[in-house]
Recover the amino acids of this structure.
């Protein structure tokens, strides 16, 4: 109701500081219906924002006495709300929820701020207080949303219901483990609702969103998994408890394991083929070089000539994702990019006794590049992270097919790509791994570990790739070397054909 004027008038950085991202009314309505099904008298919203949950619950016209308590830390935001306070079944507390005393509620409904704990100024005062309130140590919790959830679960009355919005990736994090344990062992978790095509539903979200539905009834029930693909799906839901696609027994969701691949494998037709092992067995993906000032570090031939920089202070580097357009990247491709005057070099200062380099560093300092977040923490500020050229590159952001490149050059790479660094088992498997990664099966299996950024944009962290699955050594060893070489040659000129051949080869080794 107030959202459009607030969002229009408030800078994005301000909203980010408080984790202000608002729940669309269709989603809030599902949550409101669910938490009020058991006629709760005392309802809590720990992160009120512009009050969408209160609004949706009010619309339900509950035919009994109920009271809604809400916390909101941001006074500025509250100035946008005018007539809430006048209502006698509503208390809005302009205070930090994490500092509040423990009271008990029959229903809790929340979209918590998703903020790194380090960004939270009062954390040193708050943590001990909450630890005392809930009787548990909270070490290692790196996101405020998880503390909101822990505290809220503590405040839930017997039989009370809780509906919480969280990023889906929360189920993969280290700090999520303890919460998952609590949710499962205390029989709290009843349903997980995942929004697959979230741009449609959550226009502002930068990651896949899900809702946790919990009830403190101590009844052990299978956990329902719901997948919502578009706004139309939501409109058709009368009661979310009856709308689900899968049911999982508790032992199918071990708290020590990442839940995202488990749940996604249910939702997609893709299963991990038998015998597959973790990609980690062959080596590790690492993120590319983070310079902290790409404008300064990335250089093209003409700028290098103009600055008179010598080869000692440069290295070959893929500085942007779109510099590579083909699945195989060779020295010829690199030569062509140099001729086209693309930024294919990176400043890599090794010879400081040189006037040209001293001049360029001085220009950098005058422009404040030495004071950037990353550079100011380096000694000296222009020191480059150490990376060898990686034989396989993987696009960090992907739309549709995942960008996988077999790199035959000596170029290192910036953060636009993750680079694969083989171990002794992987060193002879590079071409085979590449063929697997470009095949349809490989792409589908790897995508099970993606982090969806909305609008079909998928992001991968190096860990997501390292923990994804691929054929084991025995399976790879059954691949015909000649066919492997042939596919690599074909990929240089015809990527589509190379994918078709890779599909065949991978299917063969799986069926063996
Ligand atoms: C993700 S928004 C959700 C707002 C609203 N409930 C909704 O769903 O549209 C989180 C809200 O919590 C507020 N907030 C952030 N930290 C808080 C804290 N420690 N205590 C209470 N509210 C907080 C933010 O200002 C923001 O309005």
């Amino acid at each position: 109701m107030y959202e459009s004027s607030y969002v229009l008038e408030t800078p994005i950085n301000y909203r980010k500081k408080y984790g202000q991202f608002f729940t669309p009314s269709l989603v809030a309505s599902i949550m409101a219906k669910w938490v009020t099904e058991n006629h709760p008298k005392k309802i809590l919203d720990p992160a009120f924002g512009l009050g969408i949950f209160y609004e949706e619950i009010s619309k339900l016209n509950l035919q009994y006495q109920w009271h809604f308590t809400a916390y909101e830390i941001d006074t500025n935001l509250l100035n946008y709300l005018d007539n809430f306070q006048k209502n006698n079944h509503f208390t809005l507390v302009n205070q930090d929820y994490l500092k509040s005393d423990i009271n008990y509620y029959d229903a809790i409904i929340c979209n918590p701020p998703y903020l790194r704990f380090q960004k939270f100024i009062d954390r040193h005062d708050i943590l001990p207080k909450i630890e005392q309130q809930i009787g548990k140590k909270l070490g290692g919790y790196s996101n405020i949303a998880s503390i909101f959830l822990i505290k809220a679960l503590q405040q839930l009355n017997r039989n009370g219901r809780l509906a919480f919005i969280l990023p889906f990736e929360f189920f993969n994090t280290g700090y999520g483990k303890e919460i998952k344990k609590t949710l499962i062992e205390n029989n709290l978790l009843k349903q997980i609702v995942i929004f697959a095509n979230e741009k449609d539903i959550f226009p502002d979200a930068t990651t896949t969103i899900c809702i946790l539905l919990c009830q403190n009834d101590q009844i052990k029930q299978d956990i329902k998994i719901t997948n919502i693909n578009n706004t139309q799906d939501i409109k058709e839901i009368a009661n979310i408890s009856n709308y689900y696609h899968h049911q999982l027994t508790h032992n199918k969701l071990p708290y020590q394991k990442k839940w995202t691949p488990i749940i996604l494998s249910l939702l997609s037709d893709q299963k991990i083929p038998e015998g597959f092992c973790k990609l980690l067995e062959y080596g590790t993906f690492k993120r590319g070089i983070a310079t902290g000032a790409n404008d300064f570090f990335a250089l093209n031939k003409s700028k290098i000539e103009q600055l008179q920089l010598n080869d000692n202070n440069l290295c070959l580097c893929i500085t942007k994702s779109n510099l590579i357009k083909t699945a195989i990247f060779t020295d010829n491709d690199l030569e062509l990019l140099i001729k086209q005057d693309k930024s294919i070099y990176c400043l890599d200062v090794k010879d400081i006794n040189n006037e040209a380099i001293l001049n360029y560093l001085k220009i950098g300092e005058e422009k404040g590049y030495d004071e950037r977040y990353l550079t100011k923490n380096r000694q000296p500020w222009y020191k480059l992270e150490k990376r060898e050229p990686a034989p396989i590159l993987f696009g960090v952001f992907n739309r549709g097919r995942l960008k996988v490149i077999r790199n035959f050059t000596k170029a290192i790479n910036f953060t636009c790509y993750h680079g694969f660094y083989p171990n002794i088992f992987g060193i002879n498997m590079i071409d085979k791994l590449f063929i697997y990664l470009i095949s349809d099966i490989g792409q589908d299996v790897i995508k099970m570990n993606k982090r969806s950024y909305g609008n079909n944009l998928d992001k991968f962290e190096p860990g997501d790739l390292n923990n994804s699955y691929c054929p084991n050594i025995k399976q790879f060893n059954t691949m015909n070397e000649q066919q492997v070489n042939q596919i690599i040659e074909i990929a240089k000129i015809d990527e589509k054909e190379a994918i078709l051949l890779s599909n065949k080869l991978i299917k063969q080794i799986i069926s063996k």
